Automatic annotation (TrEMBL):
<keyword id="KW-0012">Acyltransferase</keyword>
<dbReference type="Pfam" id="PF00698">
    <property type="entry name" value="Acyl_transf_1"/>
</dbReference>
<dbReference type="InterPro" id="IPR014043">
    <property type="entry name" value="Acyl_transferase_dom"/>
</dbReference>
<dbReference type="InterPro" id="IPR050858">
    <property type="entry name" value="Mal-CoA-ACP_Trans/PKS_FabD"/>
</dbReference>
<dbReference type="InterPro" id="IPR004410">
    <property type="entry name" value="Malonyl_CoA-ACP_transAc_FabD"/>
</dbReference>
<dbReference type="InterPro" id="IPR024925">
    <property type="entry name" value="Malonyl_CoA-ACP_transAc"/>
</dbReference>
<feature type="domain" description="Malonyl-CoA:ACP transacylase (MAT)">
    <location>
        <begin position="7"/>
        <end position="314"/>
    </location>
</feature>
<keyword id="KW-0808">Transferase</keyword>
<comment type="similarity">
    <text>Belongs to the fabD family.</text>
</comment>
<dbReference type="InterPro" id="IPR016035">
    <property type="entry name" value="Acyl_Trfase/lysoPLipase"/>
</dbReference>
<dbReference type="GO" id="GO:0004314">
    <property type="term" value="F:[acyl-carrier-protein] S-malonyltransferase activity"/>
</dbReference>
<dbReference type="InterPro" id="IPR001227">
    <property type="entry name" value="Ac_transferase_dom_sf"/>
</dbReference>
<protein>
    <recommendedName>
        <fullName>Malonyl CoA-acyl carrier protein transacylase</fullName>
        <ecNumber>2.3.1.39</ecNumber>
    </recommendedName>
</protein>
<dbReference type="InterPro" id="IPR016036">
    <property type="entry name" value="Malonyl_transacylase_ACP-bd"/>
</dbReference>
Amino acid sequence: MSKIAFIFPGQGSQTVGMGQSLAEAYQPSNDFFLNADKKLEYLLSKLIFEGPQSELTLTSNAQPALLTTSIAIMEYFKQSGITPDYVAGHSLGEYTALVAAGAFTFEEGVYAVHKRGEFMEIAVPNGEGTMAAVLGLDSDKLETVTNEITESGHLVQLANINCPGQIVISGTRKGVELAGIKAKEAGAKRVLPLEVSGPFHSELMKPAAQKLRAVLDDMNITDAKVPVIANVSASEMSNALEIKEKLIEQLYSPVQWEQSVQKMIDLDVTTFIEIGPGKVLSGLVKKVSRAVNTYAVSDEKTCQEVMEALKEGTR
C-alpha cells in the first residue's frame, strides 16, 4: 500500500515575507508566529515578514523562522485531511518534523532551534570554518579525499549527503579548500563554496552539541506519534530517549538525506509533500527517484493545488 511522507526544509530556504499571506488569512496559522514571538521574547514575526534578509539569515534567527513558518503552513494544510505515514526534515527541518510528529511542543521546538542556532554561531570563531558543495563525485570517493586531508592535519568531512552527485563538505577553511582541489582531481565536476557562518555538521560543532544537550534535557520530549526518519542513521525513530541522543549527534554528523529518502521509498512511500518555503527537498527527492510523486506546499495557493491533486489521485 502506497504511503505519504511530510518533509521539512532546513536552513537556506528562508526568504523575507514567507508565510505572511497565510498568517493574514488564517488565524490558527498566525497564532504560531505570535506564539514564537512570545516564547523567544523578540519580534521574530516582524523579521520574517519584513526582514531585512541579512538579519533573517543569521543562524539563530533563520532556524526558528523556518520552523515557525513550516508549522504554520502545515496547520493550514491539515484542513486537507491528509496525514503522513512518515515525517523527515533536513538538518534543522528534523526539529520541525518532530513537532509535526508530536515529540515536543511547538514552543519547545522554536526555543530549542533558536538556542541551537546561537550555539552553532559561536562554536567556531568566524572565518575559521566553512562548507562547500561538491558536484559529480560519489560519497565513497569523496570520503577518501576528506579522510586524507583530515589525516594531514586539516579537518574536513562529509556534512550533507543530499542526492546522487551532490554532497556538502564541512570543516576548517583550509581543510575544505584542500579537499575541494583534491575532489576535482578525483573527478568532481564542480566545487561551490557556500555562504555559511560556520562548519555545520562537522566535528567542530561538538562544543555546540554539549550546550544543546542542556537545552534538550530541559524539554519534555515524548515518543513520536508518527515515525521520524533520522538524519544521522536514515532509519525510523520514535523513542523519546533516542530522539534526544540523535538530535545531539546530528549537530556534528552528516545529514544522510539521500539514504533517508531511499529508506522512505523502501517503506512504500510514493508521495513526498514538502511543507515550508521553497522546493529544495522536492528537487533532491526527484534526483533520488523519479518514480515517486513530489509536491511543495508553501502558501494558500499551493496548499489548495496539492489538496486537489491528491484528491484527484484517489478517485
